[in-house]
Structures are given as structure tokens and as C-alpha cells.
Amino acid sequence: MTSCWQRQLAKAITKIENMDPQALAEAASLPLDNSSVQIIGVTGPPGGGKSTLCSQLIEALASKHKVAALLVDPSSPFSGGAILGDRIRMQALVSNPNVYIRSLSNRGNAGGVGSSVVSILRAVMSAGFDYIIIETVGAGQSEVKIASIADTTLVVSVPNLGDDIQAVKSGILEIADILVINKADLPGVDSLYIALRESAQKHVDGWTVPLCQTVALEGLGIDALLVEIDNHWQWLQQAGRLLEKRKLAAKFEIMELSRVLLQKHLDKVPADVLARNLNRKDINLLQRLDEVYSELLNLFGEV
Amino acid sequence: MQDKQERLALWQKGLDKAKARFPERKDKFETSSGIPLQTVYTALDRPEADDFALPGEFPYTRGVQRNMYRGRLWTMRQYAGFASAQESNERYKYLLSQGQTGLSVAFDLPTQIGLDSDHPLSEGEVGKVGVAIDSLADMEILFSDIPLDKVSTSMTINAPAIVLLAMYLAVAEKQGVDWAKLKGTIQNDILKEYVARGTYIFPPEPSLKIITDIFAFCAEKVPNWNTISISGYHIREAGATAVQEVAFTLANAICYVETAVAAGLQVDDFAPRLSFFFNAHSNLFEEVAKFRAARKLWAEIMSKRFGAKAPKSLLLRFHTQTAGSTLTAQQPDNNVVRVALQALSAVLGGTQSLHTNSRDEAMALPSEDSVRIALRTQQIIAHETGAADVVDPLGGSYYIESLTAQIEDRVKEMLAKIDEQGGAVAAINSGFIQRQIQDSAYKFQLDVETKEQIIVGVNQFTVDDETQPELLRVDPAVGIEQQQRLAGLKSQRKPEAVEQALAAIRQGAEKGDNLFPPVLDAVRAYASLGEICGVLREVYGEYQAKDLV
Amino acid sequence: MAPIRVLMAKPGLDGHDRGAKVVSRALRDAGMEVIYTGLRQSPEQIVQAAIQEDVDIIGLSCLSGAHNSLFPKVVELLKARGAGEIAVFGGGVIPEADIPGLRAAGIEAVFTPGTSLEEIVTFIRERVSGQ
């Protein structure tokens, strides 16, 4: 029964996401160097059809392989809650025993993924998948973190979003291992193609970033995209590049965990100490802050 | 003019003093669409437009006919249908005997989604929100002893409209009724299904193609049939404001006309058969103004944008239903009053036909008693209030004319936004329209939570002990009986004829031919709805929701 | 504090999702994480999604009258798959007379038209934190 192991995995992910110390410690003991799992990151602007594209990739891969998908949506800056709606386009896959889909909130983190994502990856990886697909928030141009996490990063663009030039400027194209023009049946595809071609011809250590065109809604171009994903995988396997990538992910994980632990530390500062400093009547905060600063230094120690 | 402005300014000073002593109930007064309301309207608020507009004349703000209800009252058309074809047939005959003048068929969800009653997804749904129709055999029972040349029939069917209309035509053949004598409407409005109602099957492109096939076929063979009822009703029910209701409905209408014209149809050949369907909601004056504005906007769109020449192409004729979403499960008898006022707005707004909701519909399908009260409500408006005795009785009211103009302006703004995005289909695909509707729905609910919006009996004037009315219950055995009937049919019909007919549909769909003739043949051979839609699903694929919350 | 995770689903063929979406937004604004699965979900799909998402509670919305067959099926399947501790509540056009039967079948609360959002939020908070 698939529901049993899926349930265990699901519960483990929840605990990691909630920064449960024991779950984090357990995750940290799991390996990240499993070279039979390809981690595919999918990023790009909102409205680019990322979810539909992911659902097509999952469906195609799941015919022969076990596939996990982590779908990240943004949390509300006001309540911290979130509506995680990417699943809607994938519900047809839910009964497929080869597929595990999990929606995640970014929990207020910039960059398109939450801080615990690599720890979650360790847990998912140990559950025996062949592919792990991560779909980022898709809030715009700043989602470069995915490149530190995924083995193969897909940057998805669509014609007529008016952001062809924006994308070129912003640097998100720089992180692409594969560029994808989705909704390639729309007018405007030619000018986008021209705009992207330059980035696509970038060579990195023998890898030429390919430029694929898809119409995900109709399943067009998916096979060719899968070939490129596999080509990139083959290239990574050579000369230890994959392990380099994974080390990058582990470093990202250390930085994120440190940040979270630091935040927790900060949260432990007695509220009255902060409040006292925020509301000091004896000094004019607009004039000088050095006394407050030295008190903070005392509190946290010299950094 | 100068005089009037001075008088108004003086009056305003007096008003400010009065307000200082007696503050107003609210900080601001506005309509459901957020149109801010003045304390009073005067001649100064009259839009500059025609001061001597008349009904039955361009731009038809005051009505599509010169004498309106003085000639013939609106069609009283209660949406009904449940359980089996047999039981629905009995309800129709009852309604006709009670003075109802047109039929309105409600289909169950499996029928609306093109699934047979024995499909796994149909479980629990057969006969629930309407009648279950699997094949022509069911349709024959549904209309038995009802001469189709004597009634007008409206069918709320969208994605598989082509199949159900073909069945209706086949029943007419069997009754020996000439298709030219058939009167009625199919809803056939797929675009609002994607944004508001949810009973879609195929993606927009093939769906629009099928709709155009129906336009073309009926223009030639069923000339008095309304081939589409472009519906704002469900958009409003999903939470849209009055302005959004009109704007999104007209945006969809524009898309249908563009598609048909692009397919080579002449606008004046099919435009006279386009009809509309609106919601009559609770803000009485905003609703009246909404109907008037919609008529004017459509006449202008048809003449200016599409160059329609035939006067009938310019007329926005519409059916109205009172707002189901305003009915409350608490103190359900209050719903009778809500419905009466909403129905009045539709009559004052010049509707062509009207469905009044029953008081118990927030809890279940309406009982026979409740349906009768709902019908009587219309009859009281028609015969006792005098509302039907003068055309556009609120025309010329400073307030109504000003609201009409403001709704018109706001709708135009929204239409421009949708045009900018590439039209209705693009705005649906991007989720723009869905988001607008959901934002309004959520805002309304938050207003109810904070009591900014009072709902009598729900967030104020509540009672602790509610008595529960008798409700209609659909016998769960309906599903099983319907499955047995379908199995019986399948064993009796000629399988080769069905196979051939289905193959012809597949071929037609693949080649892009008009699908109406092969669908008609399949229906005549007793192919089931699920079989016909199944073939089309294979060719066209299924729509994937762009659901964003 | 760990956010409460809720799966909102529309079982059956009913396409009226205004209520489900309004409730989803209200739960988000109350700090919960809401997974919305969209229209036309079978009980199997709903249960499998709930397991994969490790939700604390499932909300089912149905306005077509099919609640008596669809809601209990979700509870049964949850139990059969070892996820019986996931709570289930429902809402929609549901006659008062059906509510005791649904409660007996394991639907812990049934919200009919006119229910305030606050009432739903409070129910979920109390139910989940009281585990």
C-alpha cells in the first residue's frame, strides 16, 4: 500500500518544515550524495505555466520512474498562512503509485523556496525516488536560490509577459541549465526566442544551455525537454560535477539552518529587553544610538 | 443651470448642519459594485445623453419593445427538474397547469458534464440537481404528452448542449412537429463555466467551435431557437458585483460573436438568436439600472463593433433569475420577500422571462408548495402591482438614470481591460476574471462578518429556535433505476448503428466539420450522452482548471 | 508555532466553489496553510492528497445534494488507509435532517449557508489543537 510510506514521509516533512529539532537532526543524518536521484528545479515568472509543465514532466517520468514533487507557494505576509494551489493541476496524478506530491509554503522566505528545503530533500531522497522536482514560488526575478539546490535548473519563460527584457536584465537566466519557452504557440514567441538565444548560447565547462519550446497544456515539446534534462544529467555525472552541485546544496542548507537557529536565538531575547531599548525615553533615538548598540552587543556578545 | 447649482450648494450647507446633529447610519453609502451614492439626485446628475429616449428604439436603454408588458407579460419560467425523466415530466405538467408559460429544464450534474449515470464519478449525483438524461429514450419520456410546438423550452445545458438539443429535435421529429415551430433556448455558454459554474468538459477552443456549429446549424434549420443564453447569472452567484456581472457577460458575448464571425458566419444571421441571462440581486435600484445599462451597451457593441444592421441583432433580450446566493437557510420564509423584491427589479428592468427562486433552496431542491409560492410571486407582480402597466416606469428618475450611466462607464472600463489582455479567453486563461470574482466574493463575506452588510436572520434579527420546513428529497434509488434503464437500452439498440454513428462523430471532429448532423444521427440511433461526449473527449481532450484562490 | 494544515476539496461533480474558496481565504488569513484541490475530486483522490500533504483536517464542500454518499466515503477511506486521525468537516447546501447521519459517519462538523467564517476558524483551531 503506497499510503503507508507516503504517510511516514509526509509526516517527516511536516516536522522538518516546522523546524522540529529532532526531525532536523534525523534529516541531517541522511545522505545527500545519492547519485541515482536527479533533482530538477523549475522556476520562472508567474503565469508561465510552471505547474502545468511540472505536471507534464511528472506524468511522463512516472511511467517508468518514481517521482516526487515539491511545490512551493508564497505565504501571506500578514497572517503567515498560505493557499497552496499548485496541486490543482496535478490532481490527476494523485492516484499514481509512482508519484508523491507535496505542497510547501515558503514560510516568508525570499528566493522562491523555504529555508528547510534541503533538509526536506534529504528525507525525500531517502524514500527512494528517481526524480525530485521542485517548483519554486514564481514571484518574479529574485528566485535564484533554486540553482544552489537543484542539479538541473529549468527557467521557464512565456511570450508576451512583457518581461523578456526584464528577465535578461535580472540575471535569472544566468542560473538556467535549460531555458524553456512555454506557451510557445502564442504570438510573440519569435521575439522571446531571439531575446533568449544569446543566454542560451552560454557555454559553461562544456555545457551549452539549450533553449526548448513547449506547449505544456497540450503536452507538446515535453519529450524533447526530457531529452535535454537527461543530457544535462549525463553531463553532471562526469568529472564529479554532480557531487559539486550537491555540496553547494549542503552549504545552502548550513547557511539556512544557521539563519533559522539565529532567528530562534533572537526570539529568545527577553521581550522586555527589546521593548526597553525600543522605548527608551532617556535618549533621543534620532540623535544617537550608541548606547543601545552597546547594550545589544552585551546581549549577543561581540560578533 | 447656475441657479440650480447655487440652490444645491445652499441645500448642501443645510444638510451638513443636519448631519452634524444627526449623524448618518454609515460613513459612506455605496452600491454592491462600490458606486458611491449621494444623499439625493437631481436634474444636475442627469447624464448628458438623450433626454427623450423611447423604448423599442436605439440604444434600447428603456426596453427592447415599444409596448413591453402591455402587450404580453414576460414568460414565467420556473427552472425545474429532478430525479427521473418520469418525475420531472409530471412536475412540468403540474407547472403548466398552474399557469406557467414556459418550461425550463434542469439537468443533473452527470448529464451536464457528459457522463452517463453508470460512470463512477456519477455516484451520488444522479437525479440530484436536475433530471438524469442518458439517451433519447429518457428525453422522450421527459416530454411525453407535452406538445413541443405549444411550449417554449429552456434547457440549462452547456458543454454537451449540442447533444441535448439534438435529442430535443429528435423528440420533435417523433411528435411530428416541424423544427421551424420549435421555440426555446439552450444555455450553451461555456465561457462562464470556466469562471463560475464548473460544468465544463473540453478546452475553450473546441468548445467555441461546437458553439459555432450550433449557431450555423440552427440558423438554417431551427430558426426560432435561441442558440445561446449568455449568462451573467452564475458569475454573480460566484460573487461578482453588478458591474462585473455585466462586464464579464458582455466580454464572453463579444468572444462568441468574434468566433462565429471568424468562422465565416454573417453577424445578422445569428445575432438575433443570441439571448442573455442575468441575476436579479438585492440592491433594487442598482439592479434596475444594471439591466438598462446592459441593453444600451449591447446595442452599441453590436452596431459599432460588429457592424450589425438588422435591428434584431442589436436587442439584448434576457431571462432573469432571482439570486440564489441571497437565500438564507435561517428563517426561510423571509426568502419569499427577498425573491419578490428581486423579481420586481427584473420587471422594472424589462426582462423577457423570469424564474423566481423558492424559499427552501438554501437547503434543498424546492418542494411543490414552495415552487407554487414562487410562481404566485410573479403573478402578483404581474397582475396586482401595476408594475407591468407602463414601460420602463423608473426611466427619467434622476437616480436611476445616473446609476445607469455610471454602470455603463464602469463596464466599459472593464471591457477595455479585458480587450487589452486579448479578450475573454485570454482573461480566463490568465485567471484574471476568476480573481476579480473571488476578490468580490471574499470582500462581501468579510462585510457580512463585520456586519457592514446586514443579512436579516443571519447576522442580525436572528432567532434561536428555527423550525425546519418539509424538504423535497430525491429517492436514492433513482441512480440505480437510471443505471438499469441505461443497461436495458444498450441491450436493445443496434450496436452497429451506434458504432457507425460514433465513428462519424470522431471523423467529423477530427476534420473540423459541423458536428451537428453526425450528433443528430447518433442520438437517433440511441447512442448515449456519455458515449458521444466520450468520443469528443478523446479528440478534444479535457479542460484543466486554472483555479487560483 | 506550526501552522495548521487544511485540505479543502470539492467532492463530486458540483462546480459551485464560491464557498470553498471564500473559506480557503479566511483560513489563510487566520494563519493556516490551505491546500485547495479544485473541482470534481473523487473520495480516493481527496484522501490520497490529504495523506501526501499530511494535513490536520479536511474540509469538504458540496452543494449538489451528493453529500450523503460522498462525505462518509472520505472518512471510511481515511480509516482504511491508516489516516483515521485526520479530522473531516463539511459544508454546503445540506438539509438539517441529514446532519445527524453525517455526524454519525464521522463528519465532525457541518456548516450550512449563513455560517460565519469565524465559526469555522474557531472550530478548526479547537479541533486541531485539542488533539
Task: Report on this structure.
The complex is a heterotrimer of chains A (303), B (549) and C (131). Chain A has helices spanning 2-17, 21-28, 50-62, 117-126, 146-149, 164-170, 189-200, 222-237, 241-268, 271-278, 290-300, and strands spanning 38-43, 67-73, 82-84, 99-105, 131-135, 152-157, 178-181, 203-204, 207-208, 211-213. Chain A is an alpha/beta fold and 303 residues long. Chain A has 2 domains: 2-242, P-loop containing nucleotide triphosphate hydrolases (Rossmann fold, 3-Layer(aba) Sandwich); 256-300, no CATH class. In chain A, the strands form 2 sheets. A 7-stranded parallel beta sheet of chain A has the order 4-2-5-1-6-7-10, sandwiched between helices. Chain A has a two-stranded antiparallel sheet with strand order 8-9. In chain A, helix 1 (2-17) runs antiparallel to helix 4 (117-126). The longest helix of chain A has 28 residues, at 241-268. Chain B is an alpha/beta fold and 549 residues long. Chain B has a domain at 68-449: TIM Barrel (Alpha-Beta Barrel). In chain B, 49% of the residues lie in helices and 7% in strands. Chain B has helices spanning 2-21, 85-97, 109-112, 136-142, 161-175, 191-197, 204-221, 233-237, 242-262, 267-270, 284-305, 334-348, 368-383, 398-420, 424-429, 432-449, 477-492, 495-511, 516-524, 529-540, and strands spanning 75-76, 79-80, 103-106, 152-156, 183-186, 225-226, 228-231, 274-280, 318-322, 353-355. In chain B, strand 8, helix 11 (284-305) and strand 9 form a beta-alpha-beta unit. In chain B, helix 11 (284-305) runs parallel beside helix 12 and helix 11 crosses helix 14 (398-420). Chain C is α/β, with parallel strands linked by helices and 131 residues long. Chain C has one domain (5-129): Cobalamin-binding domain (Rossmann fold, 3-Layer(aba) Sandwich). The longest helix of chain C is centred in the middle third of the chain and has 14 residues, at 67-80. Chain C is globular, with a radius of gyration of 13 Å. The model of chain C has no long low-confidence stretch (mean pLDDT 95). The A-B interface holds A 47, 52, 83, 85, 88-89, 217-218 and B 203, 430, 541, 544-545, 547-549.
